[in-house]
Amino acid sequence: MLRYRSIHLPPLLLSRLHRHKSLHGSLPLLWKRRDEYKLTRPELISRISRLLVLGRYDAISNLAFDFSDDLLDSVLCSLRLNPEACLHLFKLASKQPKFRPNIRCYCKLVHILCRARMYDETRAYLRELVDLCKNNYSNFFVLDELFKFYKEFSFSLTVFDMLLKIYAEKGMTKNALQVFDNMWKYNRVPSLRSCNTLLSNLVKNNESYSAILVYDQMFRAGILPDCFTCAIMVNAYCKDGRVERAADFVREMENSGFEVNVVTYNSLLDGYVNLGDLEAAQRVLTLMLERGISWTMRTYTLLIKGYCKQRRMEEAEKVLQRMKEEGEVGVDECAYGVLVDGYCKVGKMDHAIRIQEGMLKLGLRMNLFICNSLINGYCQLGQIVLAQKVFTQLGKWKLKPDAYSYNTLLNGYCRAGNTSKGFMLCDEMLQRGIEASVVTYNTLLHGLCSAGSFNDALQLWHLMLKRGVSPNEVSSCTLLDGLFRMGDLDGALALWNNILARGFTKSKISFNTMINGFCKIGRVVEAEEVFNKMKELGCFPDEITYRTLIDGYCKAGNVEEAFKVKDVMEKEKIASSIESYNSLITGVFKSGKINKVKDLLTEMETQGLSPNVVTYGALISGWCDQGLLDKGFSAFFEMTNKGLVPNLIICSKIVSSLYSLGRFDEANLLLQKMLDFDLSDHGCFNRLFKGDIRYLEIQKIADSLDESASKLSLPNNVVYNIAIAGMCKSGKVVDARRVFTALLIRGFSPDNFTYCSLIHGYSAAGNVAEAFSIRDQMLKRGVVPNIATYNALMNGLCKSGNLDRAQKLFHKLPSKGVTPNVITYNTLIDGYCKSGNTSEALNLMHKMTREGILPSVVTYSTLIKGLREEGKMEDAIKLLDQMTKTGVIQGDMNCTDVKSVTGFLSMTTGPTFSGFTSHKELGSTGLIDIKQESDSYIISEAVC
């Protein structure tokens, strides 16, 4: 009890006190201050409580005491029926410099406020309480305290409904679910609004299955859904992959008399679109019209998305056009963005830019999604300069790049081999306050490993760990593969133990990478140990696992074990892939068991597997290695007849086989055709054909050519010839000469093909003098020029206007022991026609006919074009009639265009290398014709 003592006051002071009454209409209490620190704890709590009840809040501040959790807790319990007093004390306690209320005090306060229906204050302090709890443990402690206080004082359960909603809004779904489950124990049904918030956030966090379970519990408790619930649940079923169940749910709602709105139908439409089922999506659209539900902007946008997903871009664009024409719904940046993204994904960047420009003309603004789509589209096509241009223009559109923008462009640079630019982007990204995620580091790691910079990749890995970025499966497997490729087995094993310690024991990707690493270095026994460990840890092997083991055993020459793995695979009902059969075909050839080849091909056909280019490559290589070139050619023609284009390795194998059989002319002709292929997949060729070559790089290039020869299992001379001819064809004849000189020092023995490539390159460049200089060097080395060499020289002379000199060389050919062919005559005929001397050109055609050389379609087309340009239309028509009668071509065609005629030739001649369809300009070595005579194949120069 507080003790009081009477005080005698002067009359004047007493009269003043009568005039200034307290707020309660009575005389104010006058204390004589005692030493509060001598008060007992019950006395102090009683004094603070009384002051709070009386509203003497300022007086509390004058009391000499320190706030504590026990003191605050006791006062709150004492004044639990006075929410205003409790709230004021709590605010005062929160302002103390050395004290903050604990979780128990917060729990008591929110219960007190909620009982008094002070809901806004309750929600505010509940949010403050949730933010105060930094981890799941303390959040679960909150729930225990709230229930404990509820049971002690029997206050309202509404606070739990509020907490459920707050947890859901903050995305703390585990805590929200715990509140949801515990409310049923106290017979408290959550409000529909809180349930909808929980369901919505579960779906957003990709916990659709949990959302479905929550809805089932709501349904059993009798909580009636509303239109929001319906839309959320349709979205949940669709995200869970149960789109048909979502459709059934909509029907159930409608049959129950529930009015389904456009949001629900759009969610169902989105589900079918993501599945790629446009037929079902169209049924949903029809149903909406039948129900009288108008399509919204999102409906149209989803339809555009569906067409884009199926790469039906024209139809997607028609939907956008319909939106603009009908005008019932507006067209926004989202609809345009989906269409732009669709064009970018199919690689049609011109159309993407056209749509973007059309959007800007309507006054709509660029957004980051569209910019990121353009950046990604250009990067996928390898057009990094254009991707960088879009990235740079973000500021112009008042947009800031996000992590996706940087990661996409960074990936583009790394794929192009420019990892240094990738690191510069990463630095810029960090300077802008955008954190480098594990995706960023994975991209850089992959770029460094692809470039062979394994030590740099290892340093980046340590930097990643130092910066607190936790590696994922992709990071670990990328570095693991890199360590195997650099031959660091100890490092690979150390990382492997780290991967297992990180809990990736169920990761098939990790196990497959480890098995593949051992197989690549020929240690198949260790690969099988990892395979057994994989099964022990409960990680079930997949087709890639078995395929990798089969390939490892085949490359090690142990084809029997490879077939055993295949049997185990079949017992586990895992279908063999075309890749597995390709490895087995290579394996049986390597082990000399070629009798099994036919069985494997029959088995493939039974399983519905069609041979691909790799299959035919294995067959062609195998037959050629066995010396059965005829079977190799047979496999080649079977491949081309199926429309498959041979790759560099296949053609090179045939070339090297022809060389080994002494069929040099045929090999050289085929080698010339190989240059029509894209060689950019092979690093050395990419460096040779793109960019300028410095003197200091020559030695490295020569080394890379030797390395490529080893990788492709080809003779070095074949690779050297491909490289030199490829540079000449690309117009880099000076670089070709430098590389040629460096290779001579290494002991390269150039042949007719080598010199012919250089001569043709200089002739095409207009440097005839240097072309003849190469011819002289050729003679000094004892390499006798053939007709292809002289054709290249005459082509250069004709192009430079030295027709007389070309004609003199032509007349000297017999004395050099060389017989002119159709290309020789065509070269001179073309030269005379371009100089306006068609009379001499016709004389040459008659001469070649007399000598038994039949004019080709190029001969006729060149002459017809020359006559037409001179205005001699009657002569041109006569020549066209003659060409038709002689059977050079069949059918009606415009022969004035040389390219169309030569293109027609490739379709009308007999069996040819169908992959070699690009035609040289007049004066080249022409097409190659491969004809079957008896049981052998002969490669010869075609009639053009």
From TrEMBL:
Q: Keywords for this entry?
A: Repeat
One Pfam family for this entry, by name? PPR_2
Which sections of the protein are PPR repeats? 156-190, 191-225, 226-260, 261-295, 296-330, 332-366, 367-401, 402-436, 437-471, 472-506, 507-541, 542-576, 577-611, 612-646, 716-750, 751-785, 786-820, 821-855, 856-890
Q: Which domain of life is it from?
A: Eukaryota
Identify the InterPro entries for this entry: PPR_rpt, TPR-like_helical_dom_sf
Q: Does the keyword Translocase apply?
A: no
Q: Indicate the family of this protein.
A: Belongs to the PPR family. P subfamily.
Protein name, UniProt field: Putative pentatricopeptide repeat-containing protein
| Natural source organism | Tripterygium wilfordii
